[in-house]
Request: fold
Amino acid sequence: MSDTQSRDQPRGVDALKQHVILNKIDTALWASRVLTVIFTIGYVIPIFGNPTNAYYKVLMANAATSALRLHQRMPAFQLSRAYLQQLLLEDSCHYLLYSLIFLYAYPVLLIIFPVSLFAVLHSASYSLTLLDTLGQNSWWGARLLISLVEFQTRNILRLAAFAEIFIMPLAVVLLFLGRASLITPLIYYQFLVLRYSSRRNPYTRNVFHELRLVAENFANGARTPPVIRKVLQGSIGFVSRLAPPMQQQQQQQSQ
Reply:
């Protein structure tokens, strides 16, 4: 039995090495996402030194992940309007912009929360691929953790979408506290517009809709004071006017 295991282990290691060589970008994406998770832990639990440095390393690791993903998905660079439109449709472009927005803002846990959730989700998925190259029965404990993450995929994506939305008022608060520049909430609004219009991830758009329904139900409740009802209705109308026209967006994407 031990002889069989000793023969299988080198074969698994060799298969892993070959997989890494043949899939360099995918492996680099996995490594950058794992680093994002590690730096997040280092910010929450300062065991690796200065937590502020760990915070900004989270954003830099996320920027590296987004840049690599764009390299995978985008054609060769062209100085044209069509190329820019295609670039802005990519979720990776959105989160590259996200990292640049907050790279010089005051550290707040909520800001790195969505990028950390995405890093956990996507690194777990590719970790399973790496484990499979080592053998079907290898690292069963890690496989169990990965299966738990994948089982919670929908909830993780919804949490990330909630964080994206509530970072907008946080950016305004940071502006008034002098912890962010005037350009931070302005550019972050553009980020939210891009996330709302995302082709691959409808969760931000869906969460906006869910929040609107909750606010409308509360505003129309019999026990809601008229002042609060008026404020809520005004806020709903204001946010709705800021939303991009999805019909036009979908027509442009189909073309």
Remarks:
- Residues 2-254 form one domain.
